[in-house]
Amino acid sequence: xxxKDTKKDGVLEWVKTIAYALIxxxxxxxxFYQPFWIPSxxxxxxxxxxxxxxxxxxxxxxxxxxxxxxxxxxxxxILAGEPERGDVVxxxxxxxxSDFIKRLxxxxxxxxxxxxxxxxxxxxxxGIEAAGQFTEVKEQQGPVGNIPRCENEPVAMGDICTKTRxxxxxxxGVTHDVLNIDDGGFADNTKVFTVPEGHFFFMGDNRDNSQxxxxxxxxxxxxxxxxxxxxxxxxxxxxxxxxRSILAFWTWRGDxxxxxxx
Length: 262
Hints:
Elements: H1 2-31, E1 33-37, E2 51-56, E3 88-92, E4 99-106, E5 111-115, E6 118-121, E7 124-125, E8 127-137, E9 160-169, E10 175-180, E11 193-194, E12 199-203, E13 225-226, E14 230-240, E15 259-260
C-alpha cells in the first residue's frame, strides 16, 4: 500500500512540476520575451528566413500589444526605454494587427526620403559605403516557399542569386547592411515623409523587397506606426533553420547561433 501511495505522490509531484514550468514559461513569454520566427526576406541580410529569435518586450515598456489586458490591466503604455534609430523592432500592423519586423529609421518629427536609392534623414544623406555582394541559392525558402529576387536576373532555380550590399550609417552612428536589387523604382525615389508625433517610420534592410513605411497601408504597406503598436526589440538570433521547417535541425545554420542583431 505504501508503494502505491509513493508512486501516486511521485506522479502528482511530476504533474505539479510540469504545470509550474508551463505557468512560468507563460509568464516569461507574456511579460518579458516573445519568440519570433522570420517568415520573409525583407530584412536580409541582417535577418534570414528561418531565423528564430526572442523579442525583448521590456525594451519600450508595456502596452496592449506587448502585454495582454487580462495580465496588465492598464491604459496606454508604461514606458521603460525610448526606441532608438536603428533598432530592429517587432510591431503590430496598424490595420490588420499582424506581426512585422523592420528597422526603425524615422523618429517623431523626422523628414524621411529616398533619393536615387540613398536614404535622406532631415535633408541629409546617410553615410553609405560598398560592402561587397550578398549571395544565396535561388530556391524556395522557409515554410511558405518564398523565392528570392535577384539583382543578376535572369537566374535559373538552383543557381546563385546576388544582391549588391552596402553599409549604411545612420546619424546616431548605428551601422547596418542594406541590399539592392534594382534601381529607379518607387521605393528608391519617394516623396518626403514627415513622421507625426507619437509615430515611427520603419524600413526593411532588403530595400527593394520590403513593404514598409514607404508604402501606404491601402497597398500593403504599414505607413507610420504608432508607438503603442511596438511589441519589442530584436536583440539576438537564437538559432536559424535554412530548411522548410524549424524542426529540421539538420538544416540549422551553424554560424547564426546566438548571433547579435546589428
